[in-house]
Design brief:
Layout (H helix, E strand, L loop, with lengths): L2 H13 L13 H4 E8 H6 L1 H14 L4 E5 L1 H5 L11 E7 L2 H7 L2 H10 L3 E6 L9 H15 L3
Parallel strand pairs: 1-2, 1-3, 3-4
Helix pairs in contact: 4-8
Length: 151
C-alpha cells in the first residue's frame, strides 16, 4: 500500500469520526520506571484488611511493584538521596491529609520538585475515612492503574 493510500484511509476514518490507535511493540519503557506504593503506617493500622486486599490485587496486576510502609516524617522527607536517582520512579502514596498539607507548603514543595526531578507522586487520602465504600476502593484502584500504565 502506498503512502497516499494510507493517507486516504486515515482521512476516511477521520470522516467517520473514528480514532486511530497504534500499539507500541517491544517497549522498553516498563524497564526504566520504578513503580512504588507507599502506605503511611497510621493508615495501615486503621484499615489493615482493606490495604492487604488492595496489595494482593496490585501485586497480581503488577509483579514488580515495590511497597513500603513509612511514618509521617519519612514520607515528608522522601528524596532522591534514598532512591536511585537515575531511574524514573512513580509513587502512589496512601496517606492522610496532614502529609499532603505539609508537602504543599512552599518549603517541601520546592524540595520535592528540585530534589526528585525524575519522580512523579500521586497522593491518595481516601482511606482516612471511617466508612470505606466501594467507590473509595474503586478510586484507589484507579490511582493504582495510573501508576501501572504510566509511560
Amino acid at each position: 500500500m502506498s503512502k497516499s493510500d494510507y493517507h486516504d484511509k486515515i482521512k476516511l476514518l477521520e470522516a467517520l469520526d473514528i480514532d486511530l490507535w497504534v500499539n507500541k511493540k517491544n517497549s522498553q519503557i516498563d524497564n526504566t520506571i520504578a513503580r512504588n506504593i507507599i502506605i503511611q503506617d497510621f493508615i495501615y493500622e486503621k484499615q489493615p484488611e482493606i490495604i492487604d486486599n488492595f496489595l494482593v490485587a496490585a501485586k497480581k496486576s503488577l509483579k514488580d511493584v515495590e511497597v513500603s510502609y513509612l511514618n509521617f516524617e519519612k514520607i515528608i522527607n522522601l528524596t532522591t538521596t534514598e532512591l536511585n536517582s537515575s531511574v524514573k520512579s512513580i509513587f502512589l502514596i496512601i496517606c492522610n491529609d496532614d502529609v499532603v498539607r505539609r508537602i504543599t507548603t512552599s518549603k517541601f514543595k520546592d524540595k520535592y520538585i528540585k530534589e526528585t526531578k525524575n519522580n512523579r507522586y500521586m497522593f491518595n487520602t481516601l482511606l482516612v475515612s471511617d466508612k470505606i465504600t466501594n467507590e473509595i476502593k474503586k478510586a484507589i484502584w484507579e490511582d493504582f492503574l495510573q501508576i501501572k500504565d504510566y509511560e
